[in-house]
């Protein structure tokens, strides 16, 4: 019989999370670095909700491991920089289910598995894999969706520069209520504007 999440020792959960994180790094260091960098952003938003320490730790682990399912994506698709064809895109869109299939088997990772399964759902129900809508999507997954998109927008890629924080925040605002939970976007944008100091030219452009 499966153990209740509360009954699983935190030290065991931490050890498994570290081991799986190392696995993500080994498969694709870029995914690992990105995942580590969104942890702090996810926790900052999660801390606004009345969650127990254990729930915040689950969110932290979910952020670290959100793309673990990419382990199941072939190299030629995973490392293709842009322009996936329809078959490749469909293949890539399986990664939340792959992640869930791995983690649902680990005692103490029940919520982590669910957050990861639903991190590409959209507030308007047009996401994947479950086409869940609004608050049907677990809150942890709604938070992951926002911080994942934000960090992807501000990060440099071999084929493009990352966009300024102010522009990424504006895009999140435009997608609030369609792609993203509007409350999570509002909390996140407020946080991001406090922690990211705009570059001088960006600040000048914003005030012009
Ligand atoms: Fe993902």
Q: Would you kindly provide a written description of the structure presented here, covering whatever features stand out?
A:
The protein starts with 9 loop residues before the first helix and ends with a helix. The chain has one domain: Hypothetical protein af1432, CATH 1.10.3210. It is an all-alpha fold and 208 residues long. The chain is globular and about 45 Å long. It is built from eleven helices and no strands.
Report mean pLDDT, rounded to a whole number: 90
Q: What are the low-pLDDT stretches, counting only 5+ consecutive residues below 50?
A: none
Order of helices and strands: HHHHHHHHHHH
Oligomeric state of the chains in view: single chain
Question: Quick recap of the structure?
Answer:
The chain has 208 residues and is mostly helical. The protein is 61% helix and 0% strand.
Secondary structure: elements and pairs:
Blueprint: H1 10-27, H2 29-46, H3 53-65, H4 75-78, H5 86-92, H6 95-103, H7 110-117, H8 139-154, H9 165-175, H10 182-195, H11 200-207
Bound molecules: fe (ii) ion.
Task: Note the main attributes of this structure.
single chain; 208 residues; mainly alpha; Hypothetical protein af1432; globular; binds fe (ii) ion
């Amino acid at each position: 019989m499966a153990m209740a999440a509360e009954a699983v020792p935190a030290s065991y959960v931490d050890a498994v999370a570290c081991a799986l994180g190392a696995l993500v790094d080994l498969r694709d260091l870029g995914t690992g670095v990105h995942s580590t960098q969104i942890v702090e952003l996810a926790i900052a938003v999660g801390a606004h909700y009345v969650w127990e320490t254990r729930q915040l730790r689950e969110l932290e682990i979910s952020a670290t491991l959100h793309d673990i399912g990419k382990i199941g994506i072939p190299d030629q698709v995973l490392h293709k920089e842009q322009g996936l064809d329809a078959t490749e895109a469909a293949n890539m869109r399986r990664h939340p289910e792959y992640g869930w299939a791995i983690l649902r088997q680990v005692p103490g990772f029940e919520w982590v598995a669910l957050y990861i399964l639903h991190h590409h759902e959209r507030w308007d129900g047009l996401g994947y894999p479950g086409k869940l809508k609004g608050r049907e999507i677990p809150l942890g997954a709604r938070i992951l969706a926002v911080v994942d998109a934000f960090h992807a927008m501000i990060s440099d890629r071999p084929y493009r520069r990352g966009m300024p924080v102010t522009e990424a925040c504006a895009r999140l605002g435009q997608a609030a209520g369609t792609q993203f939970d509007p409350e999570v976007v509002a909390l996140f944008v407020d946080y991001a504007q406090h922690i990211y100091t705009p570059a001088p030219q960006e600040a000048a452009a914003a005030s012009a």
